[in-house]
Amino acid sequence: MGEAGIVTDPRVDAYIEALPEWQQAICSQVRDLVHRADPEVRETIKRTRQPYFTLKGNVCALLAAKAWVNVFLYDGAIVPDPQGKQPSWWLEKAKVPCLVLIWSH
Fold first, then answer.
1. What would you measure as the largest C-alpha separation in the chain, in angstroms?
2. Do the beta carbons of residue 39 and residue 4 sit within 8 Å?
3. Contacts of 77 (CB under 8 A, 6+ apart)
4. Whole-prediction pTM
5. Among 29, 57, 66, 71, whose CB has the most other CB atoms within 10 angstroms?
6. CA 18/CA 12 separation, integer angstroms
7. Is residue 88 within 8 Å of residue 47, measured between CB atoms?
């Protein structure tokens, strides 16, 4: 269990810790953002080694590549905006997963 009752998965910790420092920073920031958006989000590993964040289905997933980090966004409409400004904190109602690539090296 992480801070403030947030449930973390040690396998996700291990995945992030094994990455280069710049990818660790990105993955940790995404992880923190997801848990701040909704503390009920759970972490797991799917597809053998890929971190997933779930809440009544997939919310997002991480996959570090050689020169970037993939952030796969799923149906964000299942997680309400905690400030009530948007129908969804991720996407306004994605019908299919969305891929975001983050470069920071």
1. 37
2. yes
3. 87, 88, 90, 91, 92, 93, 94
4. 0.73
5. 71
6. 10
7. no
Tokens at 89, concatenated: 């904190």
Q: Which residues of the chain have pLDDT under 50?
A: 87-96
Q: Which domains are delineated in the chain?
A: 3-102 (3.90.1150)
DSSP 77-100: GGS--TTSSSS-SS-S--SS-EEE
Residue among 100, 105, 104, 103 nearest 34 (CA): 100
Q: State the Cα–Cα distance between residues 86 and 17, nearest whole angstrom.
A: 33
For residue range 34-49, what is the model confidence (pLDDT) as tens digits? Answer: 999 899 999 999 999 9
Tell me the three state secondary structure of residue 105: coil
Nearest to 40 by CA among 85, 92, 79: 79
